[in-house]
Amino acid sequence: MDLIINFFHNTGFGLATYGHLIMIAVGLVFIYLGIAKHYEPLLLVPIGFGILMGNIPVFKGLGLGIYEKGSVLNYLYFGVRQGVYPPLIFLGIGAMTDFSTMLARPKLMLLGAAAQVGIFVTFLAAL
């Protein structure tokens, strides 16, 4: 039993608060819903993984934070800081688009064109 208690105090989980544990449970629920229940897995699995990564309690100075050079979280935060992820997300969504309905009924291209014209006119009106 002393070995387990010693292990618990020598890891970052000895510093865990109720907030950490609740958010870890929320992250696990998101991952479960995404994988087992197939509820929007492309959204819930990365969000759940991010919740888990952000709420793992660690000791300060171990080189695991987002501001410490060479840490994995620092490299991941680079994508957030430089705005790399939104274009990648939209590229992935565009690659998953199903064009079979549009190819079966080409008149639907007019709806898409009208939507783009509406966006462009709204942009010009906002200027």
Brief synopsis:
The chain is mostly helical and 127 residues long. It has helices at 2-10, 18-35, 41-54, 72-82, 85-95, 100-104, 108-126. The mean pLDDT is 85.
Largest sheet: none
The proportion of residues in beta strands is under 5%
Number of helices: 7
Specify Rg, calculated over alpha carbons: 22 Å
Shape: elongated
How does the helix and strand content classify structurally? mainly alpha
| Beta strands, count | 0
List the helices and strands in order: HHHHHHH
Summed over residues and divided by their number, the pLDDT gives a mean of 85
State the share of residues found in helices, binned by percent: 55-70%
Estimate nothing, just give the exact number of structural domains.
2
Structural write-up:
The protein has 127 residues and is mostly helical. It has two domains: 2-99, no CATH class; 100-127. The protein contains seven helices and no strands. It starts with a helix and ends with a helix. The model has no long low-confidence stretch (mean pLDDT 85).
